[in-house]
Amino acid sequence: MSTKKKTAGAAKAAATSPIRAPFISLETPGTQLVLARRGDIWTFAHLGAKCAPADAAALAAKRPFRDDALGACTMETYPAFGCDRDSKTHEWCEKRGALQVRHSDGDESVRWRCVSARDLPAPNGARHIAIELADQKHDSFRAVQHFIAWGDCDVFETWVEIRNGEPGAVALSRMYSFCLETTGLAEKFHLMSLSGIWASEATVAESEIALGQETVLGARSGVRDAWENNPAFFLSLGERATENTGRVLAGALCWSGAWEIRAQHAFTHELKLTAGVANLTGPYVLDSGASITLPKFVFSWSGAGKGAASRALHRWARQHRMPHPGARDVLLNAWEGAYFDFDEAKLLDMMDGTKTLGGELFVVDDGWFGRGKFARNDDRVGLGDWFVNHEKLPRGMDFLAREAKRRGLKFGLWFEPEMATMKSDLLVAHPDWFLQESGRPARCGRGGGQVVLDMTNPAVRDEVFRMIDQTIRETKDLAYIKWDANCDINNAGSPYLGPERQGNLWFDYTTGVYELFARLRAAHPHIVFQACSSGGAHCEYGFLEHADEFWGSDDSCAQQRVFIQWGEGQFYPACAMAAHVTAVPNHQTGRDASLKFRFDVAMSGRLGFELHPKNMKPEEVEFARRGVEAYKRLRPVVQLGDLYRLASPYEGDHAALMFVSGDKRRAAVMVYGLGRQLKHGRPAPLLLDGLDPEKRYRIEEINLVEPGKGLHVDISGKTIGGAALAAAGIAFDLAPGDDSFVLELTAVGR
Questions:
Q1: Host domain of residue 687
Q2: Number of domain units in the chain
Q3: What's the pLDDT tens digit per position in 257-300?
Q4: Are 70 and 144 in contact (CB under 8 A)?
Q5: Which of the residues 554, 555, 600, 642 is marked catalytic?
Q6: Least confident stretch, 3-7, 366-370, 459-463
Q7: Residue 484 appears among annotated catalytic residues
Q8: Does 155 reside within a domain?
Q9: Residue tagged active-site, from 154, 366, 379, 484
Q10: DSSP string covering 678-691, please?
Q11: CB-based contacts of 537: which residues, under 8 Å, 6+ apart?
């Protein structure tokens, strides 16, 4: 996702061979994407279960192209405004498509011809093709469309490079990464997505797209762009899919800036699906000789419901997207246990508590930096001054890191690299380094003084990198960084870009952030990064190319987290989902919950703590210590296994999740009661999923307040066959109110 100068047509990726066949078959273990050549363009012929590619192409060629208000459907892989949409009786102009361009001579149309289709080098088991397109009139205006099919998961990636070889600049008013216009898939479409806001992230919403209507998802923050809507979806083809039944197209846009996803159910039952970046304040100006690489769009198809689509995305993320494969540490983050009110003694005390609980990593949150009148003791000052406040921490950050290491803990720090406060040494010295509208007063966010830095400006990125890099190098053995972002782009102007390029702000800001992130990661590849943005606003695959996990929500209330983590788990793997045990009454909602319930909920993600351990009772410390020990045993299953959703919190008074290891020898089941009113009447037996029907499993209920007492299932300690656990299920009970239990399953024998 970048722009760069180069000669038109130059710097092409190394190719293995041209594709001369009339169709291309891209295959994953269980799915297939077939592209067919039709004249001068490539078209989508098939996405679904595997079949003979030639047959799929032949059937697609005979599929009726119905005329509608926008012309006949061409199924072109990358249609642009102005492309031809011909029927037998009429010629039409494409009015939608993925791309809209004003050429250097003022022409507004694009009519593609295929220059080449080639196989490119790809990892073992994958196939990577590139289709190069040229405008028929402006031959030096080109698009290169990429597709990757992964051989170890049912996921496809696609993205597009736009190259401007014209003598002057072109203006891109629409520049989407993906466009699917096709007929014959279904007569009904249901779109499931996630929406929300601060402390209410990832709310599941699903509705039918009415005939002739369009559903639009999107976010316009420019920074916190997984809040309003999340850039991922399930599209049911036909009747609404369930966890285990129905045809589903899953998609996710890998982007952290402003974006749009549009799904139209045309009146003739065409599906028009587009996804890409959003230009909010005008077209993107692409200079002569420059290119732009648009963000990746990943998609999958399932004929067995939403659960299979989720597991495909999770595997792809773990194996091909996220930087550090493997399980994550149990950590304690200091924020809710200290806020800004801490000194060395309090932090050392919290470290001792972290060690007692069985934690592996201690993280200092906001408030450790700034100096003098800009010392960061509240949220009004000091942001952007990334040097240690020696008045608060006189022996520096390296002392704290060494003290953590002496206790057998790793050490982490909080940063907010994208923002600064007006009251900071950084902005006093460089008042033109934040986003601002020329001649207008700045709108300020958190604390009344926070603004967004101009990440389009290389000098800004250089200085932020220098400060953070120096802090990392001075803090020896720093293992973890929490990357926060607590402001929107509220001042839509860049002093760096100049008046003719202001429409470039929204794209170039995000690519600037990625450039800074990639530079830090390259310099310090061992560091684990958390993507935080006022909670879950960076819960998306754009940031997860650079970060190892995300903070799901600032709402740490366990009851709310059941719903938030249920939603996030639709598209994002458990190893990426930070879930913390916090104090009660909860700091966001004021609700109470037992430590067991809080612990059981946090075990379905990357377990951590957000409290001061000294405020826990001795019996709570002992329970948590045993719980952390059990979680470490289950960690490979939860974080790296396959997720099966057994009971939805949206459909009853309890929720149930199940994680199964890749070899199906181990599993974990979590069940959460959500306000059951009566003790009488057990829920229906829990039908387990994902187990090997030929194996037998020993079942143990863990996380008991008192070992051996308070069991929720009658078969704890028994060995049962996988087939019976799936067919007959496990009978269980839940007490009224908030109640929960966790089961550990281990295969016995071979």
A1: 645-748
A2: 3
A3: 999 999 999 888 889 999 999 999 999 999 999 999 999 999 99
A4: no
A5: 554
A6: 3-7
A7: yes
A8: yes
A9: 484
A10: -SSSPPPPB---S-
A11: 201, 221, 223, 224, 225, 226, 227, 485
